[in-house]
Design brief:
InterPro entries: NAD(P)-bd_dom_sf, SDR_fam. The chain is of the alpha/beta class. It contains 10 helices and 7 strands. It has a single domain (14-305), classed as Rossmann fold (3-Layer(aba) Sandwich).
């Protein structure tokens, strides 16, 4: 391991196999998560995707939800020009879906509130929120990192998602059902040089899903590791591992909105994992309290009762 290449010498599939919860792993879309699968239909639904001007948001989530028949897809990012280009491109491919490009800085409460006001005016209410906007680290160890840059990761990865969730919860109230997909990362569970901001903010984002579901029975929330995908924030050392497709992450997100995936409410999943195997192991996952942020080791009460 080196600061410039912490995974030096490891095979190209290491990032997938080392984090595998299911025997079968995938790097591209497959039948169970294909948008053409009728079981994944999003007909009549309105979906909000942050970070939608490029990368996974544009090429993955927005495209796949439209392909699954969503009534409306709200494209949210800071660059209105890029959003308009995305909306035009996607409209040509999916003319039955209405694409609404909205410029927004997810770090700004005023900006986020304006998004939901425009969503209500255009569609009435949203059904799905994909918290996809994100930022990476400088790649420097904490000693030499810019604290402003470190905190910027928290502002976008965590605060931005918190603001979007806060407004969604008030938007849907206490009875309308909705789903939140928090785009987290396996890096949230990994301690690696130069990843302080990204790893810590993504870990907190993963835990956020449990708080959402605990306090809001009408809202499902799942944290998803989207896979290892080449994007404009991918560090150079990770490039050779970045062989997953945007469609993989998006297809998994589609599936997570279905009734079949209800047992994963509040939990963490990787897009690489087989959803068919997850369903087969649903009792094990729920009864064993697996795929939740937790700790290991015996606490005081357990030690006393084991004497």
């Amino acid at each position: 391991m080196t600061a410039t290449d912490p995974l030096q010498g490891l095979p190209d599939d290491y990032v997938v196999t080392s984090q595998a919860f299911t025997k079968q792993v995938y790097r591209d879309v497959y039948p169970a998560i294909d948008p053409s699968n009728p079981a994944l239909s999003q007909k009549g639904k309105v979906v909000i995707v942050t970070g939608a001007s490029k990368g996974i948001g544009r090429k993955g989530f927005a495209r796949s939800f439209a392909a699954a028949g969503a009534k409306g897809v709200v494209l949210v990012a800071r660059s209105l020009g890029q959003l308009q280009e995305a909306a035009e491109e996607l409209t040509k491919e999916f003319p039955k879906t209405q694409f609404l490009p909205l410029a927004c800085d997810v770090r700004s409460e005023t900006s986020v509130k304006a998004v939901f006001e425009q969503v209500r005016a255009a569609f009435g209410a949203a059904d799905v929120l994909v918290n996809n906007a994100g930022a990476n680290d400088e790649g420097k160890p904490l000693r030499s990192a810019s604290i402003a840059a470190v905190w910027e990761g928290f502002e976008i990865n965590l605060k931005g998602s918190l603001l979007m969730v806060h407004e969604l919860l008030n938007h849907v109230g206490t009875t309308k059902r909705a789903t939140v997909i928090n785009v987290s990362s396996a890096m949230g569970f990994i301690v690696m040089p130069g990843s302080t901001s990204y790893s810590l903010s993504k870990l907190a984002l993963t835990q956020l899903s449990q708080f959402i579901t605990m306090e809001n029975p009408n809202v499902r929330a799942v944290s998803i590791h989207p896979g290892t995908i080449m994007t404009d924030i991918t560090p150079p050392w990770l490039a050779r591992f970045s062989k997953d497709t945007p469609a993989l992450a998006a297809g998994c997100a589609l599936w997570l909105t279905t009734k079949e995936a209800a047992f994963l409410n509040g939990r963490y999943v990787s897009a690489n994992w087989s959803v068919d195997e997850l369903v087969q192991r649903s009792s094990e996952i729920v009864d064993g309290k697996k795929l939740l942020v937790n700790h290991t080791g015996e606490l005081a009460y357990e030690q006393m009762t084991n004497d």
